[in-house]
Design brief:
TATA-Binding Protein; alpha+beta; globular; 25% strand; six-stranded antiparallel beta sheet; 134 residues; 2 helices; 21% helix
Amino acid sequence: MGLLSGKRPTDLGVRGGRLKPVPSSPNAVSSQATTPYHAIAPIKYRSDRDAAMAALVEVVKSMPRVEIVTRAADYLYAEFSTALLGFVDDVEFYLPEDEKIIHVRSASRLGHSDLGVNRTRVEEIRARFSARAV
């Protein structure tokens, strides 16, 4: 990773059915956020959770400059890096067992503003996932 990648967070994951809260800075989005600026809709699916996770993994792996860090039955964590300077965004997905939704959190490690990159990425993932009709 590059000089501008920052350190991998040690406090990510699901705790009590929730992903880590987003920072107050405008460089993150989450389907569990309480502030309008940070809020984004979860991704919906119709299949079973295993099929949804498999499709999500394929969508994420198809995107540029991504590394999947953690994969479990209900959780996926990936790092996305920028092409030019190597900034890293931490992107998490949580598939609760009792709902047909994928909660998502996407946050920049460094900087204050992301110029909408995290929101755009999540919407691109949503579009690619939805195209699979899972």
